[in-house]
Design a protein that fits this description.
It is built from 13 helices and two strands. It is an all-alpha fold.
Length: about 325
């Protein structure tokens, strides 16, 4: 011990804080962080178990060969499963069909939903009842909806052919027996299923548009068409695109309706990528290819989401 005093930062802090309040605050913050981590840990474990583990396991399967007997990894094959899937004529056909299916479901849902939302945004007697009626299809379970549409498209006693016969047509169409007709029957069933969600979302968007904007347009002498094209649509653009994203993603994930109505047939005419994953994994027991197809479907979905997000950002800049 020398006679010279050492002035370190800690000693200076103690000298400036003789009662130790700074040390107490530091200790309290550390305890608060530990408590926060303990509270977040259960949610993190649930998310990791529900999303992260399947994603990692699927990635492992996509790069390996699986022994069906023991359900264990035989050997590492790298990108072999991806190459096999991408070179398959079936995959290329199903990919184009899946994109077409997603676009049709998104467009044919958003357009009527927009006009229904415009109607529900007006004040008229019975508006509340109509809003409830519009939401009813959303409350029907997907499998029940699939059974309902199977009966409606039944060729002999179904509602669709009966309605056509009442209108003077032959009404003998076998809707689920021909690939193109069956695919569009699935589109109709999916549109009916998601129409309430799109309507509700767009109605909420319409109600955020200030009345002052329409009053200013009226003062300027704008017609109904000009109000629609120069006020409503530009302001609703950033709200329509998220709806399209949701609808496209859900169309990519469509399974229960396909399973109940057509099981991917006839002649694979209604098989989408998501259903192809099911067929490869649980009918053909090619788990590696199924995992590779699942990741390719994920990449396709992410690409569409990014493209639509960029379009939404561009639209917001134009409105601003």
């Amino acid at each position: 011990m020398t006679g010279t005093e050492t002035h370190s930062p800690a000693n200076s802090a103690l000298a400036d804080d003789p009662d130790g309040s700074a040390h107490k605050r530091t200790s309290w913050r550390r305890q608060e962080r530990r408590t926060a981590l303990l509270l977040v840990a259960p949610a993190f474990l649930v998310v990791a178990g529900v999303y992260l583990y399947p994603a990692v396991a699927t990635l492992v399967y996509s790069t390996t060969s699986i022994d069906i007997g023991t359900y264990t990894v035989e050997r590492f094959v790298g990108l072999g499963n991806f190459e096999t899937v991408l070179q398959s004529d079936t995959f290329q056909t199903v990919l184009l069909r899946t994109i077409y299916f997603g676009v049709m479901v998104s467009v044919l849902t958003v357009i009527p939903a927009f006009f229904i939302a415009l109607l529900l945004n007006q004040r008229f007697p019975g508006r509340t009842v109509l809003r409830v009626v519009v939401l009813l299809p959303w409350a029907v379970p997907p499998v029940v909806a699939g059974v309902l549409w199977t009966q409606m498209f039944q060729s002999e006693y179904g509602f669709v052919n009966a309605a056509l016969r009442e209108l003077g047509f032959s009404g003998q169409t076998i809707w689920l027996g021909e690939p193109n007709l069956a695919l569009h029957a699935l589109v109709i069933a999916e549109v009916w299923r998601w129409l309430p969600f799109a309507t509700l979302f767009l109605l909420a968007g319409l109600q955020t548009i200030p009345r002052d904007v329409y009053e200013a347009a009226d003062v300027d002498g704008a017609t109904i068409w000009q109000r629609m094209t120069q006020v409503t649509l530009p302001l609703m653009g950033p709200m329509i695109i998220p709806v399209v994203i949701f609808l496209f993603v859900w169309a990519m994930k469509a399974f229960d309706t396909i399973f109940v109505l057509t099981r991917g047939g006839p002649r694979m005419g209604t098989t989408t990528l998501n259903y192809l994953v099911y067929q490869q994994g649980f009918e053909q027991f090619r788990f590696g290819r199924a995992a590779a197809t699942a990741y390719l479907l994920t990449l396709l979905t992410l690409f569409v989401i990014m493209a639509l997000s960029l379009l939404r950002r561009y639209g917001k800049r134009r409105v601003a």
